[in-house]
Amino acid sequence: MTPIVLDGESLSVDLVAEAAFDNRPVILSGRASERVAKCREMVEELVAAGQVVYGVTTGFGKFSDVLISSQDAAKLQVNLIRSHACAVGNPMSEPAVRALMLLRANALSKGNSGIRPVTLQLLIDCINRRVHPVVPEQGSLGASGDLAPLSHLVLVLMGEGEAYYQGKRLPGAKALAQAGLKPITLQAKEGLALINGTQIMTSIGTLTFVKALRLAKIADAIASMTLETLRGIPDAFAEEVQLARPYPEQIGVARNLRTLLKGSGLTTRQGQIRVQDAYSLRCLPQVHGATRQVLGYALDKLSVEINAATDNPLLFTKEGLVISGGNFHGQPIAFAMDFMKIGMCELANISERRTERLVNPALSGGLPAFLSHNPGIASGLMITQYVSASLVSENKVLAHPASVDSIPSSANQEDHVSMGTTAARHAAQVIDNAAKVLAIELICAAEAADFAGADGLAPATRVLYNSLRSIVQPVVDDRSTSSDIEKTANALLSGKWLKAVEAVTGPLY
């Protein structure tokens, strides 16, 4: 597998996903290596000269006025990591930790942080040899960097903490040793350089975005199948209608729907059965398109952040400057994550309404009540709609914006924070819930197709139907469908069914 070349400038969301999900290896570019080495020389000169530099020859936060001798510069960094490693909660997933390590390495490769080349190389070696630190997901304020969770990453580089290696949770030193690696002893500036950044929120946010985009695309296909089984009217997706309100995303979704429904024997025309469909069908381009606008905003911000230097202070070797700034503040990502979870909430909301139309005999146009094969004796898929309603209701709570909150810290020196990591974590939960909501709609749509005549499905939606039927059999007799929903949601998040559909349609918007 061709390695990803880190240069601090050209990392993309897709490359982050490949490193995280597919274990693609990583190397440092030659130019980045030179920048890192030169910046490190500058740090050592500053320490030798005894210059006052935040976090190098001073304490941290409110202790920034406490001067530290050059003899204690290394001890200062070790104490920083140990004291800050107090995050709590469940460990981040291994893909998220891989993304985290990749983003941290890429930021350091810009040559503004003053880290030693050997320390950066150990971080890269951990990525390539799959030493994944145990990083608790809670405890970041999203400003001053993701300090507490990132410190757990650095503990492992020091030979402390814990890490997963070859499926086992091990002490950090043992994980490194089994991978053939040796821990480092942090030197001046290095601890601060490793934890003062937005990589927790950005790693979670980037992988969440990738999943969200997959869901947004496959949602068009699921909704198309629902429309077919309800004998819906595709006329509303005509290009003329979209050009009259020319949002590019609305136009793109409508084009997806026309492509997905091409060749369907189940759809109807205006006036054939009814003049127009309910909003959850007729307004698909407008609602799904609006979610795509939100995802576009999130992508724009993530693309900047994954190639940004976000620690403090930053060193500029050409100018000979050391500047204390605020690039660690996560406000841009906090807003993006809050916006993304709101957009994905609506994708789930409208999906649940389509599920209701499939199971409600007053709305389904002749389908059996709750898609039951023996109505009355068998409840069919009645309660799946309850689960969907529960999930979309939970999403509404999670959609409360974390970015509007701030609690001062460090004796009010750090008096405004972003809560961006909370926003990213909640966005990840919203996307997982949305996947289950869409899974329920797909299961119901496939059941409806069995009643309406699955042979009449369009070629593209027939591929999706067959994909589902490979893991979920028709609910002829009542049974627990929990595992069916979970398996379907995981398949939707993986993107494999999207690829199968796109093999028929070509790339969807």
UniProtKB/TrEMBL annotation:
Q: Which InterPro entries would you find in this protein's record? A: Aromatic_Lyase, Fumarase/histidase_N, HutH, L-Aspartase-like, Phe/His_NH3-lyase_AS
Would you tell me the protein name for this molecule? Histidine ammonia-lyase
- EC code(s) of this entry: 4.3.1.3
Q: Which family does it belong to?
A: Belongs to the PAL/histidase family.
- Chief localization class? cytoplasm
* Top-level EC class: lyase
Query: Where would you find this protein in the cell?
Result: Cytoplasm
Gene3D superfamilies recorded for this chain? Answer: Fumarase/aspartase (Central domain), Fumarase/aspartase (N-terminal domain)
Q: Which GO terms describe its cellular component?
A: cytoplasm
Q: Which organism is it from?
A: Paenibacillus montanisoli
Q: Which residues carry this modification: 2,3-didehydroalanine (Ser)?
A: S144
Q: Which GO terms describe its molecular function?
A: histidine ammonia-lyase activity
The gene name reads hutH
Using the UniProt entry, state the residues involved in the cross-link 5-imidazolinone (Ala-Gly), renumbered to this chain: A143-G145
The protein's PTM annotation reads:
Contains an active site 4-methylidene-imidazol-5-one (MIO), which is formed autocatalytically by cyclization and dehydration of residues Ala-Ser-Gly.
Matching entries from Pfam families are given as: Lyase_aromatic
